[in-house]
Write a structure and sequence with these properties.
Layout lengths: L1 E7 L12 H10 L3 E6 L4 E6 L3 H16 L5 E5 H9 L11 E5 L19 E4 L3 E5 L18 E4 H17 L3
Antiparallel strand pairs: 1-3, 1-4, 2-3, 5-7, 5-8, 6-7
Length: 176
Amino acid sequence: MTAFVALLRAVNVGGTGKLPMSELKAICEAAGFTGVRTFIASGNVVFASSRSEAGVKAALEAKLADYAGKPMAAMVRTAAEMAAVRDANPFPKAAPNRTVAFFLDAAPPADAAEKAVGRRDELIALGVREVYVYYGDGMGQSKLRIPAAAAGTARNMNTVAKLAAMAADLQERKPS
């Protein structure tokens, strides 16, 4: 069994995509995942499965679509991948609540940072399947738009670290 982290896009943010975390837990259990735990009410869930990452994503998105009556995107990472995202943070001295990783399904294009618009003091760096952004003055006033990250979902580095720890703990317990 492999521990996974799934990050749902546009869940319980700005009045859109209402999904109680108790329902998300039940959806994951119905998909056959074990050791299911959610973290904060923004679509973060950790679980174990014997399926591949692609199989986990397909099963979860199918169950979410059944629940919501429309497609719902989920970005999926293994416990090791989530730890790698945390460890690869190119802005380690920056405030973790002002530094985010946009999770994507595939590698960002090499020109993703150059094609960003509305940039002021934000710093952008590319990861394996992530785009990292440090919002110097905070996200609230930012006008930054990164076209390559539009289909992804962002989490701040505090959340990334917590989810990496939760997934590592689940992986160490070797759920069956």
